[in-house]
Description:
EC number (chains A, B): 2.6.1.42
Enzyme class (chains A, B): transferase
Strand content of chain A: 25-35%
Helix content of chain A: 10-25%
Number of domains of chain A: 2
Oligomer: homodimer
CATH class of the largest domain in chain A: Alpha Beta
Radius of gyration of chain A: 22 Å
Organism (chains A, B): Dacryopinax primogenitus (strain DJM 731) (Brown rot fungus)
Structural class of chain A: alpha+beta
InterPro entries (chains A, B): Aminotrans_IV (IPR001544), Aminotrans_IV_CS (IPR018300), Aminotransferase-like (IPR036038), B_amino_transII (IPR005786), BCAT-like_C (IPR043132), BCAT-like_N (IPR043131), BCAT_family (IPR033939)
CATH topology of the largest domain in chain A: D-amino Acid Aminotransferase, Chain A, domain 2
Keywords (chains A, B): Amino-acid biosynthesis, Aminotransferase, Branched-chain amino acid biosynthesis, Pyridoxal phosphate, Transferase
Amino acid sequence: MTDPLTGKTVTLHDIDPSLVKITPNPNPGTPLPSEKLSFGKTFTDHMLVIPWTSTEGWAAPEIKPYGPLSLEPSSVVLHYANALFEGLKAYRSASGRITLFRPDMNMRRMNRTAERIALPTFDGQALTELIASLVRMDERWIPSEPGHSLYIRPTLIGTQNALGVGPSTSALLFVICSPVGPYYKGGFKPIALLATTKHVRAAPGGIGSYKLAANYAPGIIPQLEAAMEGYAQNLWLQGKEHFLTEVGTMNLFVVLRGEDGATELVTPPLDDVILPGVTRDSVLALARSHASTPITGLPPSKDFRVLERPISMPELVRASKESRLLEVFGAGTAAIVCPVDRIGYLGEDIHVPVGEKGMGPICEIMHREIVGRQTGVIPSDWAYVVKE
Amino acid sequence: MTDPLTGKTVTLHDIDPSLVKITPNPNPGTPLPSEKLSFGKTFTDHMLVIPWTSTEGWAAPEIKPYGPLSLEPSSVVLHYANALFEGLKAYRSASGRITLFRPDMNMRRMNRTAERIALPTFDGQALTELIASLVRMDERWIPSEPGHSLYIRPTLIGTQNALGVGPSTSALLFVICSPVGPYYKGGFKPIALLATTKHVRAAPGGIGSYKLAANYAPGIIPQLEAAMEGYAQNLWLQGKEHFLTEVGTMNLFVVLRGEDGATELVTPPLDDVILPGVTRDSVLALARSHASTPITGLPPSKDFRVLERPISMPELVRASKESRLLEVFGAGTAAIVCPVDRIGYLGEDIHVPVGEKGMGPICEIMHREIVGRQTGVIPSDWAYVVKE
């Protein structure tokens, strides 16, 4: 870019891991035992912060003690929701190896989301390296029990101290980490969904496909309303056709028996209203790989179809009545998969089979295959090695 | 509410102005001269802060030196956009009287918006009193030149330090103030709008009618895209009918000549996608009062209709072709009114008459009537007296 004052060409700095400044925490904390862990409530000793300005680009990264940020009350993030985040996890294998799961997907989505609200983009590989450094520093915070992990929360906020609505002239990227236990304590428990027609999560032409902060707070009241009616989460619908889109803050999968008897794994296609989830992509990739590299337990590949296509509530109701609705499950980083046993829709409940295990066979297989790759039981190039 | 630990009934405290703690700024600043004022860039010596917790309710308010907030990096506002704001102005009349303009409307909307994302509500009258105290303390920051005012920005954020998506268990309400000059320096300048079909600001079932932070950052890129095509702002459309909704961050008015020759002032009705603007309401109230209390310059009331009804781009195009499109203007607290002279739509420009003054007669009259009431030239019960 050209400096408007000097007329000289200025190079904006990208994130540079070699410049990282590390300040160890002089008062390291004590990780909670597994049974006291609760999602996103305790944090590790350190955080990564990288400031940005529109004139200089990204400043030197800093890993320093976890602690409060100082923000002017005029910071745009507090007024206009110039904010976005990612969620990924670090896993410790039985052998002690530490890996991240597909961080390249998070980095790509984070950059895509940043562009959508005019926040700065960056070299995703560089940020991944810095996250790996942070995880290594806080390695002792990664719980070692099965199903546990270290949840990593990269966040990017606009910090301009002026109230005009426009591209923020400064920003702060920070990464915090929180040890988490299994989403389901004591085995899988299927949830009930309320198919919402009163509220929409996202609309065509809107921001639903971006991991923007703005997509989350508006979902709190609809969730409470669903809970008051006895449902755990919302099943977000779209359009007068009542197309299924997402489940709470997860992507959605439906398993149907097709007209020809084949098993169909269906998820809505990526468009304006669907978040491109890493777990969603992993489920699709695994299911599609079955044709060339068979996965134990899945139907023979000639009887198994993977379909990204719109699916509506009337179709779901019809499939249920014809006993062709086999499974419904959510997919996301926090729960990996989340089986559904009941969907409230227009005053009636659609019951979804879950069997004795609390989840259908496809859901269970996908869980096994993904967890296997996250924990190193199944070798995979989805694992990014933080420490051998 | 019942305390979950003790079983005792607990009363949550509302905002109580009598508890206010005042800490004067030991280093008061110097207000900028009028020509250096720029919207929302400089702030007064003090700010009002009122913390809230779900167990205690609102704590004692504090007026203290303007300065940074300390927020944990896990504060939900930075991740999920649990944030909302209001905008109102304090005006100094020729006689030195200081008033706010219809603060009751802002308080009502702020409470309604807070409920939408499960942030705490409060006694609007109490907050208005505290804002008045803040304005009195920073009185010297209210510019005295015509068209100037003190912009007041109440903001409410969720401050819970845990990453679960749910009702925030703590919050912070703060109010900051910024001296502002006239929106249009050197007379009115009409703007060009790009009627957008690519992006939507809001959709039925969504959050467009709430003054949530989440509605603002997503508008930045569409605005930049409009600017690259030579338009100042977006004209946000809705539905396949291309109904007009809002202009940038303002409400929208259209003036038409009706089939019978009468003048029609049209604005979209309040629904899911329209923000209930204070200026919008003021324009409507004034226009409707014309029947009983004639306003100089408006057509005779028998030839003047005020209509809250949907209006679409095809209707606008048709009215333009039939020379029945008389005026288009935006209405909001920052600009009061904002005349429009051109609307880009599906690759063509619709030209809107603005005359020599840069704004049509209805727009000009509304500006005169509202400014008159804001500055005390026209007596009005819309003025809330901060200081006689």
